[in-house]
Specification:
With about 260 residues, the protein is α/β, with parallel strands linked by helices. It is built from 14 helices and eight strands.
Length: about 260
């Protein structure tokens, strides 16, 4: 059952702005001063709303995304900021040599908000990001752990019962695919959901990759109720109960979102 923000790009942009201002920027600012002279990259920027609060603080911001339609929207919604030289939005792969040559050791902050769970080969991708960081730079990650009730992004399903059924995405891939097909889900939605199945990430695996990459966790917050659910479902954000954050693996099943900064 598609939510309104899935089809209304301006609403989605406004929600990105509000969520970034209320949660993402304050979280990052606990370990990194945000203001004039700070350069920020958002990977998977979509409509660019996450970056607007950083631009308003005086940062120079670059948003990249592989979807040209969403970059076009970012350039439309933030045309004044782009015209003023405060931001750029690029449809580009950050692995490409021109991007790396231009932005090597350039950014103070890199943001991946609800993105890392879509990226293949995270073991290579996360350490690669260090090439784009200045000395002392930090990377923000916010993502839903795979084993949480809707970690498969099944809320994207057009069939209501498939969109509200929790945890079935963790079944073996052929079983999961069969349920989607039996439920009459659209072929493209099924393809998208299976791609997320293949790139899924848990809290434990994320932390192992960070450690192996030579990065350190600077701060970490688990959420029982993801801040973005305020807009999607009208639920007030709630941090996870501390004792549950101490139980590896089990925490993945009951934590709908995690925030990290690493550096």
């Amino acid at each position: 059952m598609a939510l309104k923000q899935h089809i209304d790009s301006k609403l989605r942009f406004d929600q990105q702005v509000d969520n970034s201002k209320a949660y993402v920027l304050p979280f990052i600012e606990k370990t990194k001063t945000i203001g004039n002279g700070i350069s920020v990259l958002e990977v998977g920027t979509a409509e660019g709303g996450v970056l607007l609060p950083f631009i308003e603080r005086g940062c120079f911001c670059v948003g990249v995304d592989l979807a040209i339609g969403r970059i076009d929207l970012a350039n439309e919604y933030l045309k004044n900021e782009v015209a003023a030289g405060k931001a750029e939005f690029l449809c580009q792969n950050i692995y490409e040599e021109p991007f790396l040559n231009r932005f090597r050791n350039f950014f103070d902050v890199i943001i991946l908000k609800d993105v890392i769970e879509h990226v293949p080969e995270q073991e290579q991708f996360i350490p690669y990001l260090k090439n784009l960081l200045k000395s002392g730079g930090q990377i923000f990650f916010g993502f839903p752990p795979w084993y949480m009730p809707f970690g498969g992004h099944q809320q994207l399903c057009t069939k209501k019962w498939l969109s509200v059924l929790p945890w079935y995405h963790i079944l073996p891939r052929p079983v999961y695919k069969g349920i989607l097909k039996m439920g009459g889900e659209q072929p493209q939605i099924t393809i998208d959901l299976l791609e997320i199945y293949d790139t899924r990430i848990t809290i434990e695996r994320f932390e192992r990759i960070v450690k192996k990459s030579g990065l350190k966790v600077l701060q970490h917050q688990d959420y029982l109720i993801n801040p973005i659910y305020k807009y999607k479902f009208g639920l007030q954000p709630r941090k996870q109960f501390a004792p549950l954050t101490w139980v590896p693996y089990f925490r993945d099943f009951v934590t709908t979102c995690v925030y990290y900064t690493v550096g």
